[in-house]
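Q: Hi! First time doing this. I have a protein sequence and I read that you can turn it into a structure. Is that right? Here it is:
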Amino acid sequence: MTTVFTTEEGVCTALRRTPFLRKKKPALGTLTSEFGVILNTPSQGTGENHHTWWVSLNAEPWKVFHVITITCPNP
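A: Yes, that's right. Below is the predicted 3D structure, encoded as structure tokens:
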């Protein structure tokens, strides 16, 4: 299980509200059903753009993701 955000704003919200995520590197990719199941799981800590992703056993998501740089505005 892992965390997915659907917008840059969602990533920035999560980074502001959840300090342990600041050590993670965001990546961009397109998911299809072969990669598993995604469910919108918003919370106060991560905002409305938070999704939980249950990765399929034989999925290879690193093939469709690449690390990106996001510049978040100061709070």
